Amino acid sequence: MRETNMKKILISLLFLLFGTSAYADCNIKSGSINILANDFPALRTFVETAKGCKGSADFKVTHSSEHNKIAVPALTANPSEFSARIAANSSIVPLMNQDLIRPLDDLVKKYGKGIQDSQLITIDGKIMAVAFMANTQHLYYREDVLKELGIAVPKTYEEVVAASEKIRASGKMQYPYAAAYKAGWNLAEEFVNMYIGHGGEFFKAGTAQPSINNAKGVATLNMLKKLAGLSNPDYLTHDSEAIKVEWESGNVALMTLWASRSGTLLDDDGDAKITAATKLTGPATVAGGNIPAATLWWDGFTLAKNRSDADAEATFRALAHAAANKKMVADAADQAVWLIEGFKPGPKSIGVIEAVKMKAKPYPMLPQMGLMHGALGSEIVEFLQGKESAEQALKDVEAAYMSKAKEQGFL
Amino acid sequence: MPNKTFFWFFLPTGLAMILFIGLPIISTGIQSFYAQHDQVVKEVKKCDPFGCTVSIVVDQEKTSKIREEKPLGKFNGFGTYVDRNHLAIEEIGKFWNETNTFGEFVDQVTNLPFYKALIFTLTYCLFVTPNVLLLGFIIALSLNAVTRRIRGPLIFGTILPMIVTPLVGSLVLFWMIDAEGIIGANLQMLMDDPYLSLKSSKTLTWITIIIYGIWHHSPFAFVVFYAALQTVPQEPVEAAIIDGASRWQRVRHIVLPHIYPVVTFVALISLMDNFRVFEPIIGFSAEGSAQSLSWLIYDNLVNEEVILFGSAAATSMMTIVGIAILLAPVLIRTWKEFRTAR
Predict the structure, then answer these.
(1) Choices 1.10.1740.10, 3.40.30.10, 3.40.190.10, 3.10.20.600: CATH for A137-293+357-407
(2) Is residue B20 part of a domain?
(3) Does A322 touch chain B (CB under 8 A)?
(4) What does the domain layout of chain A look like in residue ranges?
(5) What is the distance in angstroms between the Cα of A202 and the nearest Cα belonging to chain B?
């Protein structure tokens, strides 16, 4: 008696668990799939869609905001812990440097039906990744605040500064501007954006020699400092999540933030008044330049080299199913700017679409860029704190970068 | 204990120590002398959804050949140790020649990452260790004096900071000192300065981390001192009372000499712990204002997309040397006492 009851419960449980995801079986018979990905809503949707197609393959996923720290060690192991890594322009570079991912040409030919050519990331003629969404940092503004004070939506960072000063002078907000200035990766990313907006180059053409200690670099730092002065004084500890919270508490009227975060800003959580007044616009330009002070990013999947061909095949089929899935794109049109066929951009994609229209540059995919990014993240802090000059800070960045690049064999 | 018994008694611990501590240190030491091979790069065409560009990549064919021949990398000797991100010998020489005043020279040197981290680490040790000893001792004395009935709960409450995971403890304080947090906002009101931020000022961040360190480490000193206080013989104390010695005189001339070896022990352990200060920097997101040697190692290993094994290994070795130098006076003294005791 008891046993049959138990069986019934088990069967209905199994139904609950698997019944819902059985709709799209891609007929994968074997293999094991294990995915490493960053953690934001669009990527969760993407991986869930891939899971719906896993068939009888083993399926595991790790969503972590610490994905960058795990990726290289985990993929270096043989066999590698993960069969796939969802990467972006910057994070594919260390994988390429260490030769940890495999070319996808054969798999794309065999199973890549529906993937558009524009989604393919090719390096030296070989397909190394399949992109499925685009991302950038752009401006968010509070329509109500700007309207009340008669401020036009800013198009340049100079206008952002003027608008923020006006809001502060009105007494409405003390710290009207916010951006992820947390010392380290985030702060360096802001420098990269602003420097590119000034038309700067990070390296002397064709070499790994740094070249940021110039007038454009100084102008970049000065602009960052002006913006920092209009932000919450704790800005050096604020990452994207922290400024999102600041925004939702109504402390901020202008903000530079990732497009991929717009979903969580505009959802039903939090103060409805603030959500209703939250508007998106393209990234700002700076210093009279015509390209935006922002970088374009793609997110795409790569397959580990140190993993059996059978696993790679199973993983590719599941992920390719998601990377060419019109239903997912239609259902989750709000979550990201999908690069997949059938995507109809909604109001939340304005930032990225504007950035592409304004010819924003992609984040530089250079082997030594990670070292430069790391050096920037720690060496420009003292300038922002007012402890050293812009020239000294840039000199420090170059020196710190050179030592690291020498150790890594780039110089 | 006869030497033979001691040997067998110690053997399992000794083996574990060699396996889990000795060998990794040797391996780290070897790694610190190597750098990556020269990268062979080539120009290729790269295409992504935003267009095509000609740019460089690492030439895997050639690189893997070099790597197979010499998997450890390129022998670099003390190259990593003396480069700009570590001891910066060359840079310091240059500063010495170029700067006019000594103050300017010190400014330049303390701007280098290794010295910046060393100064914070030493400052932290210098302020936290004595305060931990003092506070731990005072708490132990006072708790020893209260009635036995409430001593249990009091002891538990006192060691709470040690039980709380360092990261959680520092996060709690981090939120409290936020410009919007209970301490941060009240300080702004008190000082009448809306721009006052404990997190953006370097000095205030240092003070916060040091206070947190004292709060976190005192219970350890307290527990050890409290245990030692239980062994203080009562006869001399009573005799002193009869002789009219004040409370302070009793502590100074009877209690302190008795528990002196324990004080040395706590000082040693505290110094070692404090020299490796790390969690509060992460917990307080204080990377901008305060870097320690341990944080430098962490930074080299995870903060870059490229892992700098050589740099991390060199800093690790120098941390070990640093601890050895710090502990040397105490160790020499203990050794001398041990010799005279024999």
Answers:
(1) 3.40.190.10
(2) no
(3) no
(4) 21-135+296-344, 137-293+357-407
(5) 13
**Closest residue of chain A to B194, computed from CA coordinates:** A174
Q: What is the number of domains present in chain B?
A: 3
Segment 36-95 of chain A within 8 Å of chain B by CB? 68-69, 72-73, 89-91, 93-94
Q: How many CB pairs under 8 A join A and B?
A: 168
Fold of A21-135+296-344: D-Maltodextrin-Binding Protein; domain 2 (3.40.190)
Domain co-membership, B210 together with B276: yes
Specify the DSSP element, H or E, that contains A133: strand A126-135
Instruction: Output DSSP code: residue B330.
Output: H
What secondary structure letter does DSSP report for A363? P
Of A189, A306, A291, nearest to A238 (Cα)? A189
Per-residue pLDDT of chain A (411 residues; tens, 9 = 90+): 444 555 555 555 444 444 333 344 577 888 999 999 998 889 999 999 999 988 888 999 999 988 888 899 899 999 999 999 999 988 999 999 889 999 999 999 999 989 999 999 999 999 999 999 999 999 999 999 999 999 999 999 999 999 999 999 999 999 999 999 998 889 999 999 999 999 999 999 888 999 999 999 999 999 999 999 999 988 998 998 899 999 999 999 999 999 988 888 888 888 899 999 999 999 999 999 999 999 999 999 999 999 999 999 999 999 999 999 999 999 888 888 999 998 988 888 889 999 999 999 999 989 999 999 999 998 999 999 888 999 999 999 999 999 999 988 898
- Tokens 């790269």 locate to B46
Q: Can you tell me whether residue B57 is helix, strand or coil?
A: strand
A chain contacts of residue B51, beta-carbon cutoff 8 Å: 362
Chain A touched by B45 (CB under 8 Å): yes
Report CB contact under 8 Å: B178, A234: yes
Residue B217 sits in the same domain as residue B329: yes
Same domain for B118 and B83? no
For the record, the structure tokens of B88 come out as 């910066």
With beta carbons less than 8 A apart as the criterion, state whether A388 and B107 touch.
no
Chain A 102-161, residues with CB within 8 Å of chain B CB atoms: 118-125, 131, 134
SS3 call for A337: strand
- B161 and B92 within one domain: no
Please give the structure tokens belonging to residue A292.
């935006």
Inside any domain, residue B144: yes
**Domain ranges, residue B104:** 76-111
Q: Which residue has the tokens 């070499």?
A: A207
